[in-house]
Amino acid sequence: MPLLEAGFLVVAGGGGGIPVVRHADGTLHGVEAVVDKDLSSILLAGQIDADALVIATNVDSVWLDWGSDTARPLREVRLADMRRYQADGQFPPGSMGPKVESACRFVETTGAKAVITSLERITDALEGSTGTIVVP
Predict the structure, then answer these.
(1) Which candidate, 9, 62, 49, 55, places its Cα nearest to that of 36?
(2) Strand (E) or helix (H) holding 109
């Protein structure tokens, strides 16, 4: 079932864009920078007082020991545990790292849950049947 039909209000933001700074006179000037879609999402979520943050990616869940014989998906995970996995180097930068960091920051600042899952499984993840759900 699509999210709107399930009663969710969807506010989406993407990455990319042209990074700029605004000068005192109001003009904009392009700068070299990266606009990270995951981190910018937590700013948007905070501005609208979101009940949850959903980060869509190309896998159904965040995995520990990705690519090894001991790989296993994370389902519901407490913020402190996620931070510990992060400190252990489980989530590479440029891959799952920014998504996990964004989810953790959102939970830290709002006390609400954050979900990381595939685009196709968002509704299921919000219902708790798949995805990685980071909770306080």
Answers:
(1) 55
(2) helix 97-110
- Measured from the Cβ of residue 27, the count of other Cβ atoms closer than 10 Å reads 9
Phi and psi dihedrals of 22, rounded to 5? -100, 125
φ/ψ of 132, rounded to 5, equals -105, 125
**φ, ψ for residue 4, nearest 5 deg:** -60, -40
Burial class (CB within 10 angstroms; exposed 0-12, middle 13-18, buried 19+) of 34: exposed
12-59 residue pLDDT tens: 666 566 788 899 999 999 888 776 777 778 777 878 888 889 998 999
Which residues make beta-bridge pairs with 135? 78
Q: Closest Cα to residue 134, out of 61, 78, 50? A: 78
**How far apart, in whole angstroms, are the C-alpha atoms of residue 15 and residue 59?**
18
Beta pairing partners, 92: none
What is the predicted pLDDT for the residue at 1? 62
pTM of the model: 0.77
